[in-house]
Amino acid sequence: MQLLPLLGVLCAFAVQQVTAQTWYYLRFQTPSGAYISSFSGNMVAPTLPGAGTYYLWPGLQPSDNAGVLQQVLDGRSGSWWIGSGWCCSNPSLSWGSGFSVNNGATVSFSNTVNSISGGTWATSITGGSSSATGSFPLPTHPMNQAIMAIELYDVSWTFGALTFTDVVITANTTSTSWCTGGPYNYNNAAVVSMSTPSASVSGGSSTCSISSIVLERPA
């Protein structure tokens, strides 16, 4: 994959020789000095048009923009496969295990860190009877950005809507505006429908909950 626009990070898998790259993504970003401790939700796999370089993912990016911890729905084989991984270096970490996903199936994802200032992230993905876990030590990369992305190479967004449900993001700040203000929509490139984000504060942390986020189509 190539660099994430404006964020300056490499994403999952190997960099490829391509002629066309298209991005659509939403980003929730915490205030300066505040970091995300958990990010979870569900992602519904759309109908894959055929084999092609389709990467659909939720992910976390650190404040230094060094990489992305992500759960990638990959359509290159002609059927969906999902796995967790850190892309791409500093440190170099092995990609986690994964499983095949049917069109229309829902995959639950979870990311939790053991130290808010930068520690080891425990990841899990579950879809039907399949599941996979991962462990990614990232002690120098505290995460301040939660991202939901469509990343395309030499293919177009013809698969319909990408839906996320029951999204929950927790960060070590009592600020709530990073949640209630809604996500940044890169270049306003996607038509998005979303339930109103709600925020709660407890013990010095704020939790952002969004029932539904739908990237409907290109703008």
Automatic annotation (TrEMBL):
This is Concanavalin A-like lectin/glucanase. Residues 1-20 form the signal peptide. Keywords: Signal. It comes from the Eukaryota.
